[in-house]
What does this fold into?
Amino acid sequence: MIRHMPLVGLTLLTLVTGLFAQPARSEDLVTALSSDMVSIQSNFTGTEIVIFGQIARDVNTIARPGQYDLVITVEGPSQDITTRRKGRFLGVWVNREYETFQQVPSFYALASTQSVGNLGSWELLDEHGIGLNHLNLAISGRSGVPLSERDDFRQAFLRLRQEQGLYSERPGGIEFLTETMFRTTVPLPANIPVGSYTVKSYLFQDQGLLSRREAELEVAKIGFEQFTYKLAHDFSAIYGLIAVVLAIFTGWLAGVIFRKD
It folds into this structure.
């Protein structure tokens, strides 16, 4: 029995060590929104949401030198959007060639701690669609636009969306409150589309992606605006008929009020 004691002690030590030892973990992201619902009424002129969070670390987190980088994106529901190019026809400027971008974000806002190009490799940014230059803008291919000119349509599409306030990119738009706590604000313009939005958060260091998180944001019309929106989209024939009846009634009423005896 005495001869087996060292082996038994070694086995017990191994079991105890295995119970208490934990594998090293990477950092995690904890994020929250100031509101997960944006309500649109007739007097809606735009708003902004606050996104804040913390880089979660514990005793098992891998110790890393250097600073963290963050990217937060807000993406709206996907749509098919057509971009047209004007040209002269019989001396008049008219819409000529066009390109349709399929299932692209109707809204895209990005905030980051520094320029997107410095955060990671081109392939990594393309994979996650981080930044306006890395969005996957698929085209229909039915317009007949030559391949050599398709990049012109892409650049025009991005420029027009930025001018409308629907696409934006703000390097330096994320503020670190402490070493691990951060916040940013995302402006939402008055013409923001309704629907379900996705808020994505990415944690980088030394051009490597450490963690990512997603949250949901809902943009919806309420009250009479919601009623007319659903009526126009879900029952377009009834909506059109009501619009015609109202137009006729309004014209008749105006004629009665302003009729000269």
